[in-house]
Amino acid sequence: AVTIGVLALQGDFAEHLTALARLGIAAHEVRQPRDLAGIDGLIIPGGESTTIGRLLERTELLGVIRDLAQRGMPLWGTCAGLILLAREVTAETRARHQPLLGLLDIVVRRNAFGSQRESFECDLVVEPLGPPPLRAVFIRAPLIDAIGPGVAVLACLPDGRPVAVRQGSIIGTAFHPELTNDLRFHRWFCELAERATVHTV
Ligand code: GLN
Question: Residue 135: left (phi > 0), alpha (psi -120 to 50), or beta?
Fold first, then answer.
């Protein structure tokens, strides 16, 4: 059986833990490096990416999570979590000090949908989940501005803009599957974690 860690420094980690509990998946909060012991995958929740990034740095989780991911541990970031996984945030939307994990070869633009569309929902075809479409909730969501050659797009908005990506075992979604009752994305991530092999040095 798989155990999932949920980064619990700030943001909507409780909703992720609830989704995992409903699936019967063992999960616990990650607040410091020792909480990473025994997990097969880590979820980085939505929230405020600058705050989470600074706390990741202060707790030394930033480097430890980066190492684990580079050794094959699956990571999934939702919204602020997607921002934290990115290689780069556009200069206009980057905070003065915005620590990033830098594990996804993408450039993101924070709060990219403008004030009249601060939050919205739509139905998305998410490639690995198959039909029916997934109800996707966007809240002050980032936009993916540029994508490197090793990154696969898993879902796009109707206008073609990518909102879910994957690079190996690193997954990022601009929307929040933890805020709906559809558990398919969480189930898929747990399956990925179950199949992954983490290479310890
Ligand atoms: N706007 C937030 C940020 O830039 C992300 C919003 C969210 O996670 N719902 O950190």
Answer: beta
pLDDT tens-place values along the chain, 201 residues long: 899 999 999 999 999 999 999 999 999 999 999 999 999 999 999 999 999 999 999 999 999 999 999 999 999 999 999 999 999 999 999 999 999 999 999 999 999 987 656 899 999 999 999 999 999 999 999 999 999 999 999 999 999 999 999 999 999 999 999 999 999 999 999 999 999 977 665
Tell how far the Cα of 82 is from the centroid of ligand 1, in angstroms. Answer: 9
For ligand 1, whether the C-beta of 49 sits within 6 Å is yes
* Domain ranges (residues) in the chain: 3-195
Domain 3-195 has CATH 1.10.10.10: no
User: Which of these, 78, 79, 159, lies nearest to 122 by C-alpha position?
Assistant: 159
Q: Is 47 in the pocket of ligand 1 (CB under 6 A)?
A: yes
- Strands of the chain (E only): list them: 3-7, 26-30, 41-44, 75-78, 86-89, 104-109, 119-124, 134-139, 143-147, 152-156, 162-167, 170-173
What is the model's pTM? 0.96
Complex ipTM value: 0.95
